[in-house]
Amino acid sequence: MQASMNQIVTLDKDTWGLLRNVLVEHQLVKGDLLLKPGQVCKHIFFLQTGLLRSFYLTDGEERNVAFTLENSFVTDMKSLRSGQPAQLSIQALESSTLQSIPKADLLGLYERSHHLEAFGRRLLENLLEEQEEYAAWFTLYSARERYNRLVKKQPDLVQRVSLGHLASFLGIRRETLSRIRKLK
Amino acid sequence: MQASMNQIVTLDKDTWGLLRNVLVEHQLVKGDLLLKPGQVCKHIFFLQTGLLRSFYLTDGEERNVAFTLENSFVTDMKSLRSGQPAQLSIQALESSTLQSIPKADLLGLYERSHHLEAFGRRLLENLLEEQEEYAAWFTLYSARERYNRLVKKQPDLVQRVSLGHLASFLGIRRETLSRIRKLK
DNA sequence: TAAAATCTGTGACAAAAGTCAAAAAAGAAG
DNA sequence: CTTCTTTTTTGACTTTTGTCACAGATTTTA
After folding, report:
1. For residue B70, what are the domain limits?
2. Which of A63, A124, A125 sits opposite B140 (nearest CB)?
3. Is Amino-acid biosynthesis found in the keyword set (chains A, B) (predicted)?
4. Which of B104, B122, B108, B112 lies closest to B14 in space, CA to CA?
5. For residue B148, is it within any domain?
């Protein structure tokens, strides 16, 4: 966790100490839910090993909106900030190890440590950039183009995630992705 | 600007003084470009009055990915952070007044003021939340549903923006939006 | 490893959205 | 006002994607 956080901002020893104090380790097995709709999301999570998906359940259909690969952070920003019950679910697609940071502790640490606040800001810039790119794909590219770009951008992800989950993330039906794959 | 920034974090007088020092006012008339593809984006902008759109130009087609209403911030996060030439264009849809903050100054201020850094972090959380919602609409809803939700969420925007620009933002053709409007 | 469950591929057809062309409407400019 | 320009609407047709049903594969698990 330290190594991958240092790629964003190098934190001093004191800040690390503070942060380490509030971390709690979790283990999930494939299929476990880290966040269920109706729950208030009160943590941010750092995924050490494994793979997660974030999805909405609307009229009986699950729609993936994100995958989380190892060494990255995940939460439901909307529920976390508002304190309202989540609409989102977060589920382990593979057995996973992660650290959680309670919201209350994080806010305290942000106040105490300018460095950590700077880390938070830069992490959010990263996430925003990614999210802007993901959204733009829908207006800029066809289903087939989105798939091709995903393969180029995250070949590892495409290997590890089932066709059905990928299709949902790309905003298309399993059958359509199956056909896209066949014809090239 | 102070009023709308205070809704995010209340900044102390000193920080305000620092920030005010680096602001530069700009006027745009309808049609003016604030950012052109190929330019490196070196500022963040605060829109005081007017209306902007952000769009990509791909094979001769303009595709809108965002609108900026008064009292909000806008930039090309990707170009700003990477220092690479922008792909994005930002254009005034109405005559606009805005303040710009040079990247170099902003980074300096972030270091000097923990408060401003906190402001930045919270602003980014807002932007991320919005962007996540926008992206999710494409996987969750049909063209017609996206349009209906936009009308409910930002009726003001729907009034002020032409059908063509709205359609592009929703990821559909003008003709399709025209038909959606007719049939209800 | 056999049976069950889940996931993927395929075909035939339906629905949604795109394309192209042209007319109508609305807005800007002299 | 009247003309010019841009935007919106409409119709006919095409393409893309979705739907449903079912057959093969693959994976899980007992």
Report:
1. 2-111
2. A63
3. no
4. B112
5. no
Closest alpha carbon within chain A to B172: A139
Number of domains in chain A: 1
**Residue B170 falls inside a structural domain:** no
pLDDT digits (tens, 9 = 90+) for A79-88: 999 999 999 9
Q: What is the pLDDT of residue B88?
A: 98
pLDDT score at A11: 80
Nucleotide closest to A30 measured between CA and C1': D28
Does residue B119 fall inside a structural domain?
Answer: no
Nucleotides of D under 7 A from a protein CB: 7-12, 16-21
Q: How confident is the model at residue A1 (pLDDT cuts 50, 70, 90)?
A: confident
- How long is chain B? 184
A158 part of a folded domain: no
B128, A124: Cβ pair inside 8 Å? Answer: yes
Query: In sequence order, which residues have a C-beta less than 8 Å from that of residue B51 and are 6 or more positions away?
Result: B67, B68, B69, B70, B92, B93, B94, B96, B160, B161
* β-pair type (A33-35, A43-58): unpaired
Structure tokens at B167: 């359609």
Q: Can you list the pairs that B167-173 forms with residues at least 24 positions away whose Cβ atoms lie under 8 Å?
A: B168/A139, B168/B55, B168/B62, B168/B63, B168/B64, B169/A139, B169/B53, B169/B64, B169/B65, B169/B66, B169/B67, B170/B143, B170/B146, B171/A138, B171/A139, B171/B138, B171/B143, B171/B146, B172/B143
Q: What is the CATH number of the domain that holds B35?
A: 2.60.120.10
